[in-house]
C-alpha cells in the first residue's frame, strides 16, 4: 500500500475544520500509513512554492488537487488508489493548496491533476472535504457500509 | 428579498459540523431573513416525509437538494437567488435531506431540484457545504471579496 503524504500550506485556523481534519486523518490511518505536512506560508524571502517543492522526493507520485483538474467522483477516487496499489507505488504526495492555489512550478511537478468538486469552497472546508473523500475511498475499497450512493 | 427556509431532518450530532452550520447561518442572516427547521426523524407511526410536508406552505417555492438534480456552480446559485428576488418570491424552502435522501412525495413537491456536488458526502458535512454555498451566493451578489475563482 502506497504511503500517503498530504502536502498542504499552513495550518487550519478554524477549530471546527481542524477537528474534522483530525477526525478523518485518524480514520485514514486505519487503512494506510500517512503523513500531514503543513508547509510554511510564503515569506518575503522564500515563496510558498519553495517550501512545498523541498518536501517532494524524486520518486514520488504527485497528485495536485485543482479545480481545473480532471473531475473525479468518490468511487473514481477509490479506483485510482486501487490502481496505484497495483502498480506498487511507494509514496503518493497529494498537494492541497491554500486559498490561492499553487504556483506554476508546483503544477509542473504533478503527475496527475484532480478536481474533487466544481464548487468553490473556502480552502479550510475544502481540506475537510478532501480528507473525508480519501477516507471514503478506503471504505469503498474495503466494501464497508460507510459509503452508499 | 425572499425569506429562506432551510428544511432539514434531525439535528446535527457532530459538534464541529454544528459549529460550522451556526457560523454560516449567522453570516447568511446578515443578508436575508432565514429559518432553520429541523423536522423530526421518522417514527414507527409517522414517516419523515409527513414531518417535512407539513412545514411547506402552498405558496412556497420548493428547492430540493439532490445528487440527481441539475448541477449548479457557486455563481449559478447566486444567479438563481437573484432571479427569485426579481420575481418577488416570498418564501423559498430548501429541502436538505438526511443520510438517505427524501421520499418520493417530497420530490414531487419540488419546483426545482439542484445538485451542489457530484461527490457523495456524509449528510452532516453536506449540510455545512450547502450553508457555505448559500452564504457565498450572497457575497457574490453583493460583489464582496469573499468569493474569488
Largest interface: A-B, 26 and 26 residues
What name is given to the CATH topology of chain A? Answer: Alpha/beta knot
Shape annotation of chain A: globular
Tell me the β content of chain A: 15-25%
Provide the fold topology.
2 copies of one chain form a homodimer.
Chain A: E1 3-9, H1 15-28, E2 34-39, H2 48-53, E3 61-71, H3 74-87, E4 91-96, H4 104-107, E5 112-115, H5 123-141
Summarize the structure in words.
Two copies of one chain form a homodimer. The first copy, chain A, is of the alpha/beta class and 149 residues long. Chain A has one domain: Alpha/beta knot, CATH 3.40.1280. Chain A is built from five helices and five strands; from the N terminus they run E-H-E-H-E-H-E-H-E-H. Chain A has a five-stranded parallel beta sheet with strand order 2-1-4-3-5. In chain A, helix 1 packs parallel to helix 5 (123-141) and helix 3 crosses helix 5. The first copy, chain A, is globular and about 50 Å long. Chains A and B meet through helix 1 and helix 5 of A and helix 1 and helix 5 of B.
